[in-house]
Write a structure and sequence with these properties.
Blueprint lengths: L3 E3 L1 H30 L8 H25 L1 E3 L15 E5 L6 E7 L10 E3 L3 H6 L7 E6 L2 E11 L2
Parallel strand pairs: 1-2, 4-5
Antiparallel strand pairs: 3-4, 3-7, 6-7
Helix pairs in contact: 1-2
Length: 157
C-alpha cells in the first residue's frame, strides 16, 4: 500500500477512530449479535443478519484504518512553501460568476469529509489549488464541468 498522506491532526483522528471502533463499537456489535442469537432460528432472524452485516462493515473499516495508520506519512508544511496552499491549509475561494465564497481545508484522501469542508489534495478541487496562492484563478475539472474560482485567501494550518 502506498503511503497515506495526512496532517498531524488527521493522524491523531485516525488513531482515535481506530481505538474507538476496536474498544467500544466492536463490543456493541458483539452484544447485538449475542442478543439476536438468543431470539432463536437464525435463518429468518433479521436482527441477527443485520448485526452480522454491521460486524462485517466494522471489521472492514478497522482493517482500512489499521492499514492507513501503519502506512501514514505525516506531511508538514515545508519552510519554503511561502503563502502557497499546502496540505493542512485553509483556502477561501470565490466563484467570480456568482460571488459565492466558501472555505475548505486541504487534507489527505483518508481525512476527506465534504460535510466538514475537508477536501482531499487528490480531488479535482484539491489538485487545482495545491501550490497556488491568494489572488490566483484556478480551473477545476469537475464531473459537472469546468468551474473557475479565485483564491481569496490561503491560511496555513
Amino acid at each position: 500500500m502506498a503511503k497515506v498522506q495526512v496532517t498531524a491532526e488527521g493522524f491523531e483522528k485516525l488513531k482515535a477512530e481506530l481505538h474507538h471502533l476496536k474498544q467500544t463499537v466492536r463490543m456493541e456489535v458483539a452484544d447485538a449479535i449475542r442478543e439476536a442469537k438468543s431470539h432463536g432460528d437464525l435463518k429468518e432472524n433479521a436482527a441477527y443478519h443485520e448485526a452480522k452485516l454491521n460486524q462485517s462493515r466494522l471489521e472492514g473499516r478497522i482493517s482500512d484504518l489499521e492499514r492507513a495508520v501503519q502506512n501514514a506519512k505525516i506531511v508538514e508544511r515545508p519552510a519554503d512553501a511561502g503563502d502557497a496552499a499546502f496540505l493542512g491549509s485553509r483556502v477561501t475561494l470565490e466563484d467570480p460568476e456568482f460571488g459565492d465564497v466558501f472555505t475548505v481545508t486541504l487534507v489527505g484522501g483518508f481525512e476527506a469529509d465534504l460535510d466538514q469542508n475537508l477536501v482531499s489534495i487528490s480531488s479535482p478541487l484539491g489538485e487545482a489549488v495545491l501550490g497556488r496562492s491568494a489572488g490566483e484563478m484556478v480551473t477545476v475539472e469537475a464531473p459537472a464541468g469546468k468551474q473557475v474560482y479565485r483564491i481569496k485567501d490561503v491560511a496555513p494550518e
